[in-house]
């Protein structure tokens, strides 16, 4: 199994839906690394542990980190510094790709860019291909179909959006999956403890309504694939 590099959103989504044990079972079954960057750890563990409203989520995810289910990548200090340079470069490129009138549109945050950068570092120094686990639509479509993202932005802002087409190629190297795909894989491999014919659909919709960008058509397709 290729390493999975997690953005904060899918981990929070699994936690909020009581599905963190699914990640543990997936890791045990496929023996792949589930990696997070320092930026993501700060977002899902360090900061939540200081806020009463989010402390429980932080504790749950901290346990997963302490158990080694999710962990930092084994890279050198020099590679960490290079990762930061790549992260800042990707932020600069992504956030200067789409322009509305005289204003560039914010596309990527630091956590997402750090995950992308880690993927580049793993490929460069270890010749390891990885998947990024990201639920947020903007980052995913930027990689999969950047021209479609331009059209989506035009619809969202109801105005003409210009794109720096030369920036598109910077993100085509990344492969992205969502929390819903991981849940589907777990279900197909009998890793979901709830044995009920409604479980897959309920799980996919729960992940959708807690932040995973997936259409109802895609959910129906997944359900039909297991019938």
What's the quick description here?
The chain is an alpha/beta fold. The chain contains 11 helices and 7 strands.
Structure description:
The protein has about 230 residues and is α/β, with parallel strands linked by helices. It has one domain (about 1-180): Rossmann fold (3-Layer(aba) Sandwich). Helix content is about 55%, strand content about 10%. The protein contains 11 helices and 7 strands. The protein has helices at about 10-15, 20-30, 40-45, 55-65, 75-95, 110-125, 135-145, 145-155, 180-190, 200-210, 215-225, and strands spanning about 5, 35, 100, 105, 130-135, 160-165, 175. It has a 4-stranded parallel sheet. Strands 4-3-6 form a 3-stranded antiparallel sheet, covered by helices on one side. A hairpin with a 2-residue loop joins strand 3 and strand 4 (about 105). Helix 2 packs across helix 9 and helix 9 packs antiparallel against helix 10 (about 200-210). The longest helix is centred in the middle third of the chain and has 18 residues, at about 75-95. The two termini are about 25 Å apart.
